[in-house]
């Protein structure tokens, strides 16, 4: 395995690109245009991991992170330097706030939002390390 790439269809492509590239700060690695208006931009999101959780763990995370509000089947977790500041920036850029930043039992500060292209996001700031 060399790379994990999450492919997202964005109905409002320009809004999604501005949000993830310009507000979140993901750098553009590649971009391609094709026939009939086809367009793709590949953004660098740092190191990728695949977190597999059983239903009991998901319920626990949802209680801790979002007052029990059920997370989507797929949720994108992004590590940031400052969860509170990043959350404020993303809300200002149009994200829907689901849960305010809060410290978790696993020593991170997590917030939950819904961003462009319908992605549910967890922003997390590691407190140790």
TrEMBL record:
Q: Which domain of life is it from?
A: Bacteria
InterPro entries found in the cross-reference section: Glyas_Bleomycin-R_OHBP_Dase (IPR029068), Glyoxalase_6 (IPR041581), MMCE/EMCE_epimerase (IPR051785), VOC_core (IPR037523)
Query: Which Gene3D superfamilies does the record associate with it?
Result: 2,3-Dihydroxybiphenyl 1,2-Dioxygenase, domain 1
VOC domain span: 2-126
> Which Pfam families did the record assign?
Glyoxalase_6
Alphabetically list the UniProt keywords: Metal-binding
Q: Which PANTHER family does the protein's record reference?
A: METHYLMALONYL-COA EPIMERASE, RING-CLEAVING DIOXYGENASE-RELATED
Query: By what name is this protein known?
Result: VOC domain-containing protein
Tell me what organism the protein belongs to: Agromyces allii
């Amino acid at each position: 395995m060399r790379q994990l790439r999450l492919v997202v269809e964005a109905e409002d492509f320009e809004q999604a690109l501005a949000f993830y590239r310009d507000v979140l700060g993901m750098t553009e690695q590649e971009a391609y245009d094709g026939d009939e208006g086809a367009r793709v931009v590949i953004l660098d999101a740092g190191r990728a991991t695949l977190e597999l959780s059983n239903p009991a763990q998901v319920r626990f995370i949802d209680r801790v992170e979002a007052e029990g509000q059920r997370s989507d089947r797929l949720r994108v977790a992004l590590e940031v330097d400052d969860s509170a500041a990043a959350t404020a920036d993303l809300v200002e850029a149009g994200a829907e706030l689901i849960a305010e930043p809060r410290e978790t039992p696993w020593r991170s500060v997590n917030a939950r939002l819904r961003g462009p292209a319908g992605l549910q996001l967890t922003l997390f700031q590691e407190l140790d390390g």
